[in-house]
Amino acid sequence: MNVRDEFRYNRLTWEDMNEAIAMQKVVVLPTGSTEQHGKHLPLDTDAFLVESVCHELGRRIPDRVLVLPTVSYGLNLHHIDFPGTIHIEPEVFIAFCLNITKSVAYHGFEKILVVNGHGSNAPMIDLVARKTVLATESLCFAANYFTFLVDAFNEVKESEVMAHADEMETSLYLHLAADRVKMDKAAPDNDRVGKYCSSDSTGTVRFNDFWGRWTGLGVHGDPTPATAEKGEIIFNASVEGLVELIDDIHKWPIEKRRDQHTGPVQKEIRW
Question: How far apart are CA 179 and CA 42, in angstroms?
Fold first, then answer.
């Protein structure tokens, strides 16, 4: 096997890994969830979509990235009123992902990218990236895959809301695995909206209520205009954006820290 052409982290042997480390591939950690996505999409939606995007990223630039197995669980207690949803406490999620990134850094990889596919994981992957940088000599970055498809989606969308089990996610799933989507059960729904707040944290103020309080469907947005053709467009936009991000990360320097103290510091202190 040619290590240069293999993008799947777990397909390498430990001997192969030495070559990948020498190449300084960017190690990519996809994070998603196992949660309800209305009556039309499977519970694996967030994990499946982010993994698909990251694997396509790997296929396009295998000499520059290694994709770790997907973390398929996240913060989801707000969806727990819907059968099948799995919730992981924030502290547990952060510690688990941090153990992964620190392990990768230990082996000698200098650049790590956490790519998220579940909205509620976003503040946690930010902390994972920050804590990795502070605890290791490596650099860790955090991004949501859907950040890179918004402009393309705005060009083709027919609905107003981009949120959950909506036109965007449904289009992506139709593009990747249409046989798993129950479009005959797709229906729109919206959250409760006030002057500054909304029950799905899409308002000015951050707030996310239990979904069982405001929806019996588990959808925020309108999946009915979704098509596989739209999915292909936004899938490619997301992957292309991540390719550009990898270029940026590869070029980012790791410089030496410069201590500005003029007196002694208490280096025995640990945070």
Answer: 11
